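Hi W., the 4-fluoro-L-phenylalanine complex you wanted:
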Amino acid sequence: MSSGLGKQSRDSFGSKFGVVAAAAGSAVGLGNIWKFPYITGEFGGAAFLFVYLGFILAIGLPIMLSEFIVGRGARRNAFGSFKHLAPGTNWKLVGFLGVGAAFMIQSFYGVVAGWSMRYVELAVEDSFANRSASDIQTLFSSFIEDPVSPLYFQLAFMVLVGAIVIIGVQKGIEQFSKVLMPVLLLIIIYLDIKAVSLEGAKAGLEFLFKPDFSKLTGEGVLSALGHAFFSLSLGMGTLITYGSYIKKDNNLIRTAAQVTAADTIIALLAGVAIFPVVFAMGIEPSSGPGLVFITLPNVFHQIPGGYIFAILFFLLLVIAALTSSISILEVVVAYFSEELKIKRRVATILAVALTSVFGVMCSLSMGIYSDVKIFGYNFFDLLDHIASNILLPLGGMFIALFVGWYLKRNRVAAEINQGGSISDRLLSIFMILVKIVAPLAIGFVFVKGLL
Ligand code: PFF
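Structure:
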């Protein structure tokens, strides 16, 4: 039986650091290091970043706290929590949105995690040495466009995630990554130092931090909102489930603030490592999903110890992807096993198999099927767009409405005040954010970005 997140085991995280580490393990992943830089590049840089940061603070943080309140209050997974707290209502349907989002995200996430695994191998083979920036771009694009070789890596990653969930060693992985993630952070800081000292770094930093709001489009704002949810693991019940393991003496506000801060800092530091290189090497900021893979290899062979750091960096990226992916898969597995009553082991195999099939389609849509467009997106981007920019914000909107209008102020205060304390003023601000500001802002951004 799983010692992880199954409903059978309702034990709590041992230490306060344990739950922060697990939630941060879910939040910090490919979203920070792969997706954040490339969409920031696509949507024009600093203006996108500032809007993103605004969404993190005004919408992401309050919704993360909301998910913790619901999860710890109900001590169940997302579906079960809504059923328990609002019996006989349709609130449990919010869980469906989450399962749909998790299914789509898991599908393309495995593909990019597979790319990262391939890069560990390339780093071990010292394949980045003596290559020009354009050779490195070709190396990446010929790999992802190949119909077969990315699939090996994607499937290897998917099997690994499934095995971890079946064997039930999620907590072990989290303990282990608690030590490893600070190492990843240190490597990124080392890359930052090198990146900002490159000739041409200034243009990269200006791109990232000097906003030109005239460049911002409705689609950009929608993507900034979607990415706030994606990066913080919000809107699909992941943090409701994790919240159900938080002990009653934990300060939920502090935990939410720490996870949000860690996630945001890592994304920013990744941006600082990447954009100076983009400008120094004459790479297009809007190069798309390959950005991290075509920039950083140019730096490793210029720094002392670069050979080892390249291997470590991509290895740790795979581990960061693993801890996030476990939390995504769990949403699908919990639904199959607890709602559809399929045995947990079978549910896991089924979830891995189905999302792998969709993943293969995502991978092929980078190469041989790149011309097949649905609403103007290839299959990979379509899943990302629907899940991140539509389902997650919608799920988050309902979670905010649930906490604001259904649970109401007294129950919210009672839950927060176990293990922490909230002043009347702060509580009022929080209630306004979840009752009115977050739902209206999400609705408004939908209208602007989708129409
Ligand atoms: N937050 C993860 C990342 O940034 O890579 C991805 C993710 C995990 C999204 C869990 C949603 C989720 F529920």
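The chain has a mean pLDDT of 92.

W.
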